[in-house]
Design goal:
Layout lengths: L4 E9 L4 E6 L10 E2 L2 E3 L6 H13 L4 E12 L4 E10 L12 E5 L12 H13 L7
Parallel strand pairs: 1-6
Antiparallel strand pairs: 1-4, 2-3, 2-7, 5-6
């Protein structure tokens, strides 16, 4: 199956080990649900610089301690997406200027959030990495 888009998503953690979620806009795929910051990788980009760019565009912040968490593919009825998932820390020194509604969410509450179907595997991946001590602290 052909991949329609390569997407980078970022799990941004604050000092309280909460994850930043953005509300998806009503005019996009999977509207009005919570998701990690991120977006499409441009043809001339590598995934990590794309993730840094997307986080800056969507929130106005720069993360620290960037790490690759994993990869995932998901087929929706109308598209097949490949995801590259990253982690970073937010040090709280910059104001978040999100382009949509945002919230900080505790890890144990993530599974209860209404998110795109593709994010379910990423949430499990993130929780596993956290439980294994693979998420660095500032």
């Amino acid at each position: 199956m052909n991949i329609d888009a390569l997407i980078v998503l970022i799990a941004v953690f604050n000092h309280d080990d909460e994850v930043l979620l953005l509300k998806r806009k009503p005019d996009v795929h999977c509207p009005d649900v919570w998701s990690f910051p991120g977006g499409k990788v441009k043809d001339d980009e590598m995934p990590l610089p794309a993730a840094v760019r997307e986080l800056q565009e969507e929130t106005g912040i720069k993360g620290k301690l960037w790490r690759h968490i994993g990869k995932h593919q998901h087929a929706y009825d109308d598209r097949h997406l490949a995801f590259i998932f990253f982690f970073c820390r937010y040090d709280g020194k910059q104001n978040i200027q999100a382009e949509s509604t945002f919230q900080w969410c505790a890890l144990d509450e993530l599974s209860a959030k209404k998110m795109p179907e593709a994010n379910q595997a990423l949430v499990h991946m993130l929780i596993h990495c956290h439980d294994e001590g693979l998420i660095p602290t500032l």
